[in-house]
Task: inverse folding
């Protein structure tokens, strides 16, 4: 009964040039989708290789130096090329103007520029791979990063350039949200994903410039030896860490906040119930964005910062738990007595709730000064941030991709294979990373090439998990590509959601809406309105 | 598309009216400016820390900066801010010749600033008052006096780069004004460049006393 | 739409710009003049207060913050606040890093503090055995 529209943003206009010079936010979102997925695949392959090497102690198939380069590349690519741009640049670009009833983002040319800058930055990062990849870890800590002979400069220059891409996206989103909402859409009628993107954008524009100056200083230090981070010349290497984490701690909220926004959409839509505590969720996003700037020193508890600073940072860190907790409680309460439909996006949302809660709570352990001194630089840290970043952001991202997939392409993926893939990813993820919590609490240091025999069973367990995880992603790639050609036609509103993007055709026309939509109800008023679903149950 | 609906030619398709487009540009510009504040902020932080650790060096080294050149440059930049503001005002009134006159004055003042800076820099290079390992000057007491010059060259260098970038944009404005691209209805690029130029001035207002006066 | 649109085409008379420019030049002269006097630790404060005054004039009049939508003012002030947070929290570290040298070692106790509040009953043989065990642990540890 559903049919694809004959003209949509996908085929009007045609031609490679019309894609490479497009100013359409939906197409730019897709350009980002393909390039960021390539980066994700690359980072994922590095992760699999790292786990394979760690299957048994000592050398399995790569040298220690290669191993150091691989975990650096895995970290740098996953952070700078994948997870920071992932949700805002792909899903945000695609969905934000649609959700607020706008024709485009405020600055379409800046938007396209941000993608080219992303490609340029990625080129530098890829170049550093072939030119003797950096082996400093993704944090580029001085003094090692100024002394190693590997290609630190092209990698940091890449990250520096990628920063501009991130700033442009954030700037564009703030202006779009302020100025381009359709008539009647007041701040508290905006979908919560938009609130998440707004809070993210604030961090992007406030924190990223500091990363820029930090990496610039590192490059100048390395090239010219100005001594600003060199203790032998009166400089201070710990200052580098302050600079770096003033950006990079807020950056982890750049990664998680838009994910939280997606979860708010998914939980409400698939529980067919009005979101509980709309304002609390909206303001807690801003709260997290604000607190994120006050806690960076908790990465430096054993770096030799003053005890006073360590205590202040530890104390402030606990405040992050409050807005995060508010969100989790509101999501759970939204589901209570809802009519829950366990479609693939909802399965990702539930995985998020479970894994993010573990990741968040272990973060509270690590924020406690005395506990962190023991757990610092162990696998416990590695497990913690993978639970937050992968169990949190990546799950939300995948949930969002599966949620908006029918809107992006007009076609549905195979629900059966999608569920198999969720199950594999969920199980594989926990096998891979829960074992690392145990390893870390037993004292296994992170970033080590070799380890004691007593850690071998858990390391092997973790590596087996990575294979399950990898299989899940391969299946996903297959059924998603398959759906582009053979998928059922989804219709405009396959999930029965109430936000604007589901009122226009799937895929949407170039101008998004035939007429600019007026806000007549809230984004989650499932108690007042029964949305018409265009796709029946399987 | 725009002409067909009777809208002005400079209105982009995704805005409903000129006012919305103008306010969007202005908000975007302000957000860009705060990224500049934070970019310089990192260096201000470095200044604060190294000064608090080495107050004697900063004091002994700052007397080697030329207060006259610094004051001259401050006067030049403030004057250029006034002419920039007047250029915007002239365009708001649709007075194209006056706009051109003020923009060219601003550009010339910016060039004067960089020329003065050039003489200061070359004097420092000549004496070896340079950052890090390039430091060869012998006349300052204390350990690691080069730290002061590292911070000095980083901050004034980054600021100088912004002046240079501003000159590029102002040159583009002059060309566009000559081609009659702006009017009393549409002068957003002039206004945005003005905001940028005032921020460059504003940062210098802090750099000047921090380096030349109190050290 | 929102507030601010009525102010957007606010055109100021030239005397405002010239007056503010004159004020900035006068403040420059003042800050240079006072730099030749030594107020000791207040040198920096005086210079920064004057600079802040000049910066406010530039922001309020040249950059039109006084007349424009207050959103721009909020954004600008917020950036300065976050910059202050950055510098102040970093200085909590850099200014107090040497405190660690003032921390003297306490006396080495022969039993853990947690046992202080426990009434030790010498008739219970367990108390002795705890000490005995801990002693042997201490004695053995360097060798391991």
Result:
């Amino acid at each position: 009964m559903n049919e694809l529209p004959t003209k949509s943003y996908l085929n009007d206009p045609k031609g490679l040039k019309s894609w490479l010079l497009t100013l359409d936010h939906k197409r730019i979102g897709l350009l980002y989708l393909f390039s960021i997925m390539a980066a994700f695949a690359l980072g994922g392959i590095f992760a699999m290789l790292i786990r394979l090497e760690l299957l048994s102690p000592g050398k399995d198939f790569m040298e220690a130096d290669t191993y150091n380069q691989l975990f650096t590349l895995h970290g740098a690519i996953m952070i700078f090329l994948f997870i920071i741009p992932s949700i805002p640049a792909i899903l945000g670009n695609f969905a934000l103007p649609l959700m607020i009833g706008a024709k485009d983002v405020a600055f379409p040319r800046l938007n396209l520029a941000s993608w080219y800058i992303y490609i340029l930055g990625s080129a530098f990062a890829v170049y550093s791979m072939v030119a003797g990849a950096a082996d400093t870890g993704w944090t580029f800590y001085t003094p090692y990063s100024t002394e190693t002979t590997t290609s630190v400069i092209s990698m940091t220059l890449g990250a520096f350039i990628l920063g501009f891409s991130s700033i442009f996206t954030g700037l564009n989103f703030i202006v779009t949200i302020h100025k381009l909402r359709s008539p009647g859409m007041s701040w508290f009628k905006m979908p919560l994903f938009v609130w998440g993107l707004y809070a993210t954008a604030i961090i992007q524009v406030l924190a990223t410039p500091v990363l820029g100056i930090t990496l610039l200083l590192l490059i100048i230090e390395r090239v010219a030896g100005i001594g600003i981070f060199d203790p032998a010349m009166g400089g201070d290497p710990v200052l580098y860490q302050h600079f770096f984490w003033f950006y990079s701690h807020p950056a982890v909220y750049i990664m998680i906040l838009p994910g939280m926004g997606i979860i708010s959409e998914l939980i409400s839509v698939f529980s067919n119930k009005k979101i509980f505590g709309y304002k609390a969720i909206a303001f807690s996003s801003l709260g997290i964005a604000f607190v994120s700037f006050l806690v960076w020193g908790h990465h430096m508890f054993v770096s030799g910062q003053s005890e006073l600073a360590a205590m202040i940072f530890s104390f402030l860190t606990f405040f992050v738990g409050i807005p995060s907790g508010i969100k989790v409680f509101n999501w759970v309460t939204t589901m209570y007595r809802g009519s829950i439909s366990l479609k693939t996006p909802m399965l990702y949302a539930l995985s998020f709730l479970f894994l993010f809660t573990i990741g968040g709570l272990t973060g509270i352990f690590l924020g406690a000064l005395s506990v962190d001194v023991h757990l610092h630089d162990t696998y416990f840290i590695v497990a913690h941030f993978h639970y937050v970043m992968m169990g949190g952001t990546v799950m939300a991202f995948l949930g969002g991709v599966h949620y908006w997939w029918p809107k992006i392409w007009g076609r549905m993926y195979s629900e059966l294979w999608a569920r198999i893939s969720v199950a594999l990813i969920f199980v594989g993820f926990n096998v891979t990373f829960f074992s690392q919590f145990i390893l870390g609490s037993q004292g296994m240091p992170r970033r080590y090439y070799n380890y004691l025999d007593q850690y071998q069973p858990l390391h092997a367990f973790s590596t087996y998990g990575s294979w399950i995880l990898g299989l899940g992603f391969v299946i996903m790639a297959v059924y998603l590509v398959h759906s582009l050609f053979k998928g059922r036609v989804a219709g405009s509103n396959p999930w029965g959601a109430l936000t604007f993007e589901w009122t226009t055709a799937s895929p949407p026309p170039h101008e998004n809406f035939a007429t600019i939509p007026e806000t007549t109800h809230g984004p989650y008023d499932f108690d007042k309105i029964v949305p018409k679903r265009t796709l029946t149950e399987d | 598309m725009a002409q067909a609906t009777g809208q002005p030619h400079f209105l982009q398709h995704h805005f409903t009216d000129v006012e919305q487009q103008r306010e969007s540009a202005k908000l975007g510009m302000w957000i860009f400016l705060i990224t500049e504040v934070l970019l310089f902020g990192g260096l201000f932080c470095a200044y604060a820390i190294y000064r608090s650790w080495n107050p004697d060096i900063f004091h002994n080294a700052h007397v080697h900066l030329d207060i006259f050149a610094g004051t001259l440059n401050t006067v030049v930049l403030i004057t250029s801010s006034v002419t920039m503001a007047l250029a915007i005002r002239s365009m708001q009134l649709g007075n194209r010749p006056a706009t051109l006159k003020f923009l060219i004055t601003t550009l010339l003042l910016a060039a004067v600033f960089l020329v003065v800076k050039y003489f200061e820099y070359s004097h420092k290079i000549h004496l070896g008052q340079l950052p890090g390992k390039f430091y060869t000057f012998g006349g300052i007491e204390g350990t690691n006096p080069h730290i002061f010059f590292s911070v000095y060259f980083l901050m004034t260098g980054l600021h100088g780069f912004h002046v240079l970038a501003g000159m590029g944009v102002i040159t583009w404005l002059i060309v566009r004004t000559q081609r009659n691209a702006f009017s009393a209805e549409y002068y957003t690029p002039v206004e945005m460049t003005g905001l940028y130029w005032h921020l460059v001035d504003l940062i210098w207002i802090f750099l000047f006393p921090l380096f030349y006066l109190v050290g | 739409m929102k507030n601010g649109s009525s102010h957007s085409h606010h055109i100021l008379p030239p005397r405002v710009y010239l007056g503010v420019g004159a004020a900035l030049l006068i403040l420059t002269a003042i800050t240079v003049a006072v730099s030749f006097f030594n107020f000791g630790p207040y040198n920096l404060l005086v210079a920064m207060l004057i600079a802040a005054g000049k910066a406010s004039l530039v922001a309020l009049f040249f950059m039109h913050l006084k007349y424009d939508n207050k959103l721009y003012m909020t954004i600008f002030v917020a950036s300065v606040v976050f910059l202050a947070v950055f510098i102040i929290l970093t200085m909590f570290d850099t200014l107090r890093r040497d405190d660690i040298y003032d921390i003297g070692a306490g006396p080495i106790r022969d039993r853990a503090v947690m046992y202080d509040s426990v009434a030790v009953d010498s008739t219970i043989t367990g108390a002795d055995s705890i000490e005995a065990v801990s002693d042997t642990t201490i004695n053995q540890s360097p060798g391991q």
